[in-house]
Every structure is written in C-alpha cells, then in structure tokens.
Amino acid sequence: MTTGRLAGQVAVVTGGALGIGGGISRRLAHAGARVVLVDLDAAAADATAAEIAAAGGDVTVLVGDIRQPATVAALADAASAVADGRIDVLVNNVGDFRPASRDFLHSTEDQWQALYEVNLLHVFRVTHALLPAMVRQGSGAIINNSTVEAFRGIPASAPYSAFNAGVSAFTKSLAVEVGQHGVRVNAIAPDLADTPQTPAELMLRGRDPELLRTWLPLGRFGRPDDYAAVVEFLASDDARFVTGHTIPVDGGTLAASGWYARADRKGWSNMPNEA
Ligand SMILES: NC(=O)c1ccc[n+]([C@@H]2O[C@H](COP(=O)([O-])OP(=O)(O)OC[C@H]3O[C@@H](n4cnc5c(N)ncnc54)[C@H](O)[C@@H]3O)[C@@H](O)[C@H]2O)c1
User: What is the pLDDT of residues 71-80, one digit of tens each?
Assistant: First the structure.
C-alpha cells in the first residue's frame, strides 16, 4: 500500500496479532505503514499477516515473547531491516489484567511481578531499544496501551491498575523529554473491548445485552478497530501538536463513572440501579 496517511512509514506493533493489537496492525497497514508485528502466538500472527498482505499491505512477522530481552533485541533488528534503520511508529500494545486475584490481600508477590512484566517493564525495554532511531531521524510517534483503570479504581486488580497508571505517567514524562527531538508520545486507555482477553460473552455472563446501555453510554462493546482508529490518528501528522496524553477509548464509561442509565429508561442514577 503506497497511499494513505502513514504511507511508507515503519510501524512496530507489539501483540499485533489478535484483539486490539490485531486491529492496530490492520489499520496501520491499511494507512500505508510497513508494519512489523511481534506476537507470542505464531498461528495468529501468520493469519493476521496473511490478511494484511491479501489486502495489499506490507507486514513483517516476528514470533516471540515481548517480556524477553532477546525478543526485544530481535524486534529492533527486524524493524531496522525494513527501511535502513528508520522507525516511525511504535505501538506498545501488550498488556494483561491476568493473573487477577480475589482481592489485594490474597495476591502474591509473584503475581505482582508477573503483572509488572506484562504491563510495564516491556514498555520501557521496547521504547528504550527503538527510541534512538526516532531521535536520530528527528521524528517519531510512540503510542502506549494503558487502560481506563489507570484513572478509575478496579477491585481485584490493584497492581494491574498501578502498572497501567505507570504506563500513562511514563507516557507523559517521556513526551516532555523527547519533544525536542520531534518525537511524540501518547497513549490510549481502552475499556470494554470485545477481544480474546475480554470476550463480550464473558463480560455479559448471560445478561441481556440490552443492559449495556445502562452502564456504557454508547451502548455497545468496543471493536478492535474502534481503538485502532485512535491509534492511527495519534500516529499520524494530524496529531502533530498532541503529545503526553492518554486518550480514553471507552464508549463513555470513564465520563459516566458512577452513573447508570436507569433500567426503567427514566434518566440516569448514581444510586443502586433497580427498575
Ligand atoms: N480488552 C479490553 O477491554 C482492554 C481494556 C483496557 C486495556 N486493554 C489493554 O489493551 C491491550 C490489548 O488488549 P486485548 O484485549 O486486545 O488483549 P488480547 O489478550 O486479546 O490480545 C493480546 C495480543 O498480544 C499477544 N501477546 C500477549 N502477551 C504477549 C507477549 N508477552 N509477547 C508478545 N505478544 C503477546 C497475544 O498473543 C495477542 O495477539 C492490553 O495492553 C490491555 O491491557 C484492553
């Protein structure tokens, strides 16, 4: 694909096979970027890459665990090989709320460490490995994947929430540091995406989908492309004066926090929500 607002740009997407990351890989490729996708799941990565290639996109696959320093080094090599060391866009997408525990009291140090490694540590490592290319060329856009729970409490996941608040704080501080080099750093904060990690059926657990409108202002779960569209904007020149921010992509849940459309359709309530 040689047209589109990211035409010819090299874009790295971690966890770029499935879910939100899959949507991001497809979107950026459709916008003309030469996508380097790294993922744990070889079969899913190949399937997404085949779909992108069939649509005329340019994609390179690397299979590996982004928590491993060797994968980060291989990713830097793979990305550098695409266009003589040029790297225009980095999307640090990998993250997971699991292992969640019943509550913080029952959580263990091993769980905190696992949550740290899958939500925050690799964001530092990958950014540290790819940022020099952006600084050298005097341009670049980094987009991190945080969560609304960096801003709103979530029971049973306090460490997950803390590490994602870390992702958003890292986004802000790094943006201040690297703006002088023409590099922008932003994040998205998703909620309620229908993905393999949080499938809609599991979130609904048999409840009537009609109830969605009572706690989700836009009345539906998010689709990967809803998040990818915002990532494409942040990666593009249209966001040339935007840096240091985390943009919620949540169908309005953060804005509505604590407020629920009444089951009887008579307005909204911040009280226990009975018909
Ligand atoms: N799903 C949601 O509603 C939601 C809400 C808030 C934040 N997020 C954030 O969005 C991001 C993506 O979420 P999702 O629901 O699409 O996830 P997902 O689990 O459905 O998909 C993650 C993708 O990353 C790959 N992956 C996972 N661990 C990896 C690793 N260690 N190394 C390489 N690849 C790895 C998976 O194989 C998969 O392709 C995460 O950072 C998550 O915390 C999601």
Answer: 999 999 999 9
